[in-house]
Amino acid sequence: MLENARGRCLRCHVLQARDLAPRDITGTSDPFARVFWGSQSLETSTIKKTRFPHWDEVLELQEMPGAPAPLRVELWDWDMVGKNDFLGMVEFPPLVLQQNPPRGWFRLLPFPRAEEDSGGQLGALRLKVRLIEDRILPSHNYRPLTELLMEAVRGPAEEDAASPLAVLEELTSGDCRQDLATNLVKLFLGQGLAGPFLDYLTRREVTRTTDPNTLFRSNSLASKSMEQFMKLVGMPYLHEVLKPVINRVFEERRYIELDPCKIDLGRTRRISFKGAPSEEHVREASLGLLTGYLGPIVDAIVGSVGRCPPAMRLAFKQLHQRVQKRFPQAEHEDAKYLAISGFLFLRFFAPAILTPKLFDLRDQHADPQTGRSLLLLAKAVQSIGNLGQQLGQGKELWMAPLHPFLLQSISRVRDFLDQLVDVDGEEAGGPARALVAPSVIVREGYLLKRKEEPASLAPRFAFKKRYFWLSGETLSYSRSPEWQMCFSIPVSHIRAVERVDEGAFQLPHVMQVMAQDGAGALRTTYLQCKNVNELNQWLSALRKASAPNPDKLAACHPGAFRSSRWTCCLQAERSAAGCSRTHSAVTLGDWSDPLDPDAEIQMVYRQLLLGRDQLRMKFQEDFNIDTSPEVDTMRASGAKEGACPEALARQREAAGRLLEVLADLDRAHEELQQREQQKAALGPLGH
Questions:
Q1: Nearest Cα residue to 454 out of 526, 510, 361, 523
Q2: What is the mean pLDDT of residues 360-365?
Q3: DSSP letters along 476-501, please?
Q4: What's in the keyword line of the UniProt record (predicted)?
C-alpha cells in the first residue's frame, strides 16, 4: 500500500506460478493473471505453453472511494477460440493488506460460488489425517544402531535385557507397538533377516509363557511383528487364496443368517421357497449358502502350500519348532498347530474375509447385507483356526448347524499345517529376492514412453503409448500385449528409479528408469503414468525388483536435459553430477507400506529415546551384581533369575553401547539442525 498525490495505491508484484492445471491439448496452458481491487482490475501478459509461468510484473491500482476492498488475484488460461479457462484464485482481506502485506507462495483456490449455487447442500466429508514430521539423517549415521539391532537377533534372546530390541519390547504398548512392529519388520526384511528377527521375539515370548492356551494371544511385540510380516510378505498369496470366493459373495449378494434373533423374513424374497418362508427355511438355506462359500475357501487354503511365500513358511517352521520344544507334553499336542493357525487364520485370513477392502481384495466396503455374510464366514474360519476348541461354547450356539462342516475341515487343516512347515532352506537376500520371483510378472499395463531422440517434437508428442511388463528379471515393452516384437531392460542393470519434475516436460506423473546398457553407459528411460497412484505403484514395483542391485546411484537429475542444459539445476553438461539424492522407498505388494531403511531406523531411534533414562538407571547408576534393588528391578523387567555375574556384566556393557549410540545420534541431529538454521539465516543468496 503506497501513498501518492492521488491517494492510496496498491502495488501488486506478480512473480510466478507453478503446477498449474493443463488446459490445452499440448498438456500445458497459456496463463495470465488478473488482479482485482475494488472496482478496478489489471492483467499481466500471457505466457504461452507452460504450467510454470514467470511474469515478474508490477501492477498498480488506485484506491476508489468506499469501504476498504479485498485483493483478489485470478489465474486464467487464454484461449484464442471460445472462453478463457479458469485456473484458480487467491484472495486477501483488507486488514491483511494493511498490516501484513502478503509475500510468498499461496495455494490457488476455486471460485467460492459452488456451495451458493447448490443452496449450501454439498454434503460433508469425514477425514482422519496424521502428520509425522521428522529429520532423516544420512544413512551412515544410523549404521551403528542398525548393527546393534542385527546383533541382538543372533544372541541368546531369553537372557537379553539390554539390547535395543529388549528395551523396545518393554517400553512400547498399544498403537505405538503396532507402528514399531511395522518399522522393525521392514527394517529386518530389508536386511534379509526377517526370519531371525521373528525367531528372536518368538523365543522370548515362548520362554515367558507357562500356559500354551495364552501363547501369542496378547498384542505383544512378537504377535504384532508376525502379523505385520504376513501383511508385508503374503498379500499376493492372500489374494490368490481368497479373492475368487470374496468376489462371489459380493456379486451374488445372497441373504444369509443363522441367528434367530437377527432373521428378517421380509428380506427373504431373494431365497426361493415352495411355501411361505419361515425361520427354519431361512436357516437351512443360509447353511447351504455358507457351506457353499466355505468349501472353496477351505479347499483353496489347504491346497495353497506351494503358493505360500517361502519366507512365511520358514517363519512358521521356526515358530512350530520353538513351541514344540517348549511344550512337548502329549496334552499340549495342539499347541504347535494353534501357534501357526492363530496367526494364519485368526490374524490373516479371517480379518481379510471380514473387511476385504482393507486388504485390497475389493475396491469398496461391503453393504450391510454382504457385510453380515462376510462376518459369518469370518467366524467360521476363526473356528477352524482354533481347531474346534471352542465349538459349542459361548453365546453363539446358533452356529451349531455349521459345526459338522467345521469339524470335518479341522483334520484337513492339521495336515495342511504339517505340510506348510515341511520346508528346507534359509532366508536369504533382501526384500526383492524374498518377494519378487524372477519369472513372475509383478506389474503390467500401458505407459507413455518418451522417444530416445525427440528433439524436434513437442514434449507431449514425444511420448508414445507402449505396453509394459515387469518381472524379477526384465522390464519389457512393446506396442501392445499381443505385439510380437518386444524390447527389454534387464532389472539387474537398473541403477535408480526416480520421479521427474513436472516442469521437465510440462507433463505430470513422469518417472525415469536409469540403467546401464551392454557397454556400461548409463541410459535414462522416461515413462509417464495415468495418475499419481499408478506412478507410485510403478515406482514401488521397479524399486522393489531392483533393490538387490549393486552400484546404485546416490544422486540423479529430477529434471531432463533439454536445450543444452538440465531443467532442474541448469548445468550445461549432460554428464554433470546429479543434483538430487535418489530414493529407495517402495510399497510392498499393494499394502502401500514404504520400505525406507533410514526412515524406519529413525522411528526406532525415537522410541529408544523414550526409554533412555530408564535404561541408564537400571544398568549404569549404582549397578551392583549382588542383591541391590537395581538388580531386583532388572530381574522384574525381564532379566533371567539367577543370572551369573558374567551375564550381568555383558548386559551392562550392551546397555553402555546402546546409550553411546543414542548419544551419537543426538549429536548428529543437533548438527543437522544447526546447519539448517544457518542455511535459513543466509537466505536464497547463501545457498
A1: 526
A2: 86
A3: EEESSTT-S--EEEEGGGEEEEEEE-
A4: GTPase activation, Metal-binding, Repeat, Zinc, Zinc-finger
